[in-house]
Amino acid sequence: MRTNYRIHSGIRFRTLSEDQLHALFDGTLHVMENTGLDVHHEEARDIFEKAGAWVDGLRVRIPSYLTRRSLEMAPRSFTVYARDGNPKHDIRIGPGLAYFGPGPTPPNFTDVDTLERRPFVRNDARIVAKVVDALPNIDFCESLGTISDVHPDLAASYEFAEMFPNTSKPIVAWSYGWDDGEDIHKIAVAEAGGQEAFEKRPNYIHYCEPLSPLTGSFEAIDKLIFSARHRVPVIFTPCPLAGGTAPVTAAGIIIQAAAESWMGLVLAQAIKPGLPYFMGGVLSVMDMNAMILSYGAPELSLMMAGITELSHYAGLPLWQTGGCTDSKTLDEQASLEGSLSCFFSALTGGDLCHDVGYTESGITGSILQTVMMDEAIGYSRRITRGIEVNEETLATDVIHSVGPNGHYLTHKHTQKHFQKEFWFPNLCDRRNYQQWKESGAKTMGERVIDRTRQILATHQPSPIKAETEKAIKEVMEAAEGRVKNKS
Amino acid sequence: MSDVLSQISSAIMEGKKDDIGQLTQQALDEGLNAKQILDDGLMKGMEVVGVRFKAGDMFVPEVMRCARTMLNAMEILDPLLAETGAKMFGKVLIGTVKGDLHDIGKNLVGMMCRGAGFQVKDIGINVEPETFVEAVKEFQPDIVGMSALLTTTMRAMGDTIKALEEAGVRDSVKIMVGGAPVTQSFAEKIGANGYAPNAAAAADLVKKFMTAA
């Protein structure tokens, strides 16, 4: 924790003590070494074995020295670059830096025009990317859905091809497996100017998801191997349900999720030492009546805070979760659950906070929710920036010069600092009743919808290179050829 | 109602899985037959459990325990019921389709169906269409339940139905499908008989299939 205000004047927040973190760390190493994990990928098991793990059938047990060494190899700080060289869209990963963005793969989307829930289509990926590009507090892009109106094997390839030209913020890409992962990589590399240039300035991150409890599916492992071999920064994030696919206790689910994440870490570092690596994932409760993974539960925020602290304790950046809700629509519940989890995530400094815009417990993506949460994140970021304390901000001389009965409005101290000291809302209405009434008496929800539509009507993302446009066309044509004779 | 039957109902509701065997035996000793014990004891208890669960007054782990309690009693009653030839409820075969390793939703469906009195055969995860066919031939279920959590593996549900058709056993079963990306219209498209959005709905659906049959 940095308390030197010259570096970081943020507020101090901790859920776990050093001793508790040590216990969680040891617990994770113990599970990896004694229980191990099932890896449904023969080549990966060979790599594990050569690296020093014990392999017995599908089961891979990882001695703790190997995990510690892998943790040492992975960087805590690195940069993922904006494709267009705009430094404001770069993501610099490191202590005290927290970023936000949407999530992958819900089957449905809230239509921005009709506001109806319907299957996610190709054009929605473009919409999401464009809005993400414009929002001041959304830093990376995911599509908020799985495209339903193309060949299912190509949903992820089309998703990336639609998003990439419409935002220069780094994309967290998702794919089913190797082939579509390769499609995505070819597009990103075309823009970067070749594989070597990409390795120096990676412009996207790849997302893989092991299964809880303690299982690496073939696809998840295959994607991880692809990412490692091509030096794509990688996220390996489980989605355990407390009480269902993980222990019911917060400490227990954190240990299991860390073990699942570090299985991927050990493999990735064995293939490509120093590969930028994010551990995950989404930790929450299984609602014991509705039987869903709750995206609005307080336990989500608490468990995520715990695993963020463990991750930072171990020296890894974390894939955080927030801005999501169990609500089916853009309502008070969505606002409450989303805002609180954004705020809590901001407090933890979890490195990349995703799922901003998940509604209906991850079944429906809503860019409207993302737009509303952009405001909540701005609000949260003002708080976590904390109170700067130095001679200038203490302002005793200013107080002296104004004295009793004066005012500060015209003082140069006010002029100089008000824009930085204050947060300015985009959506929260602070005007008086008369003004609000005269401008249509709009609710927060209505203002969110207006802003979203306005961005879509006016925002112009920076264009991709001509050669990338060509590459996208070629990649997608080849991809269509690949599935031509598949049902 | 006999005292022991109401004790059996209560034991089910409270999930007293270690006491139920003794109570069931006691009921038999008192001269009650297996069908009476099932209908007026066990199922009475499970009906209350179902109502309470739907009202949000009971939770999944408690319902699981009740279902487990029911199974312990059924171990004693099943052979007796078989002797009398009373066909009580149906048989349900469940599995997660090829390419998909997701387990928990299917397990919940299994427990909910067991709790509703059905005999359930769980053939696991990543189940090939051919394995479904073999299991249908061997277990002869009334209902086949298929689960998938991924948009890619969903397609294997259609493949499985085709395989059942080709093997000539499609019409001997009702097919229900479920999993996060699955919808009613998808179920209709692939020719399933029904779709259940969650495990409790799946238990209702299998009951509906059996009354309709």
Q: How would the blueprint of this fold be written?
A:
The complex is a heterodimer of chains A (487) and B (213).
Chain A lengths: L17 H18 L1 E3 L2 H10 L2 E3 L2 E3 L2 H10 L4 E3 L10 E3 L5 E2 L7 E3 L6 E3 L2 H13 L20 H9 L7 E4 L3 H15 L2 H6 L3 E5 L6 E2 L1 H12 L4 E3 L4 E2 L7 H22 L5 E3 L4 E2 L12 H17 L4 E3 L10 H17 L3 E3 L3 E2 L4 E2 L1 H18 L6 H4 L1 H7 L9 H10 L11 H6 L5 H15 L7 H18 L4
Parallel strand pairs in A: 1-11, 6-17, 7-19, 9-10, 10-12, 12-14, 13-15, 16-17
Antiparallel strand pairs in A: 1-3, 2-3, 4-5, 7-8, 18-19
Chain B lengths: L2 H12 L5 H10 L4 H21 L5 H25 L6 E6 L7 H12 L3 E4 L6 H11 L3 E5 L7 H12 L7 E5 L5 H6 L4 E2 L3 H14 L1
Parallel strand pairs in B: 1-2, 1-3, 3-4, 4-5
Helix pairs in contact in B: 1-2, 1-3, 1-4, 2-4, 3-4, 4-5, 5-9, 6-7
Task: Considering the chains and any ligands shown, give keywords for the structure.
heterodimer; A: 487 residues; alpha/beta; 4-stranded mixed sheet; B: 213 residues; 5-stranded parallel sheet
Walk me through this protein's architecture.
The complex is a heterodimer of chains A (487) and B (213). By secondary structure, chain A is of the alpha/beta class. Helix content of chain A is 47%, strand content 11%. Chain A has helices spanning 18-35, 42-51, 64-73, 122-134, 155-163, 178-192, 195-200, 218-229, 250-271, 298-314, 332-348, 367-384, 391-394, 396-402, 412-421, 433-438, 444-458, 466-483; strands at residues 37-39, 54-56, 59-61, 78-80, 91-93, 99-100, 108-110, 117-119, 171-174, 204-208, 215-216, 234-236, 241-242, 277-279, 284-285, 319-321, 352-354, 358-359, 364-365. In chain A, the strands form 6 sheets. In chain A, strands 2-3-1-11 form a 4-stranded mixed β-sheet. In chain A, helix 1 crosses helix 10 and helix 5 packs parallel to helix 6 (178-192). Chain B has 9 helices and 5 strands; from the N terminus they run H-H-H-H-E-H-E-H-E-H-E-H-E-H. Chain B has helices at 3-14, 20-29, 34-54, 60-84, 104-115, 129-139, 155-166, 184-189, 199-212, and strands spanning 91-96, 119-122, 143-147, 174-178, 194-195. Chain B has a 5-stranded parallel β-sheet, with helices on both faces. Chain A binds chain B through residues 40, 105, 107, 146, 148, 152-153, 155, 176, 211, 215, 217, 241, 243-245, 286, 288-292, 362-363, 487, and chain B through 53, 56, 58-61, 101-104, 108, 151-152, 155, 180-181, 183, 198-200.
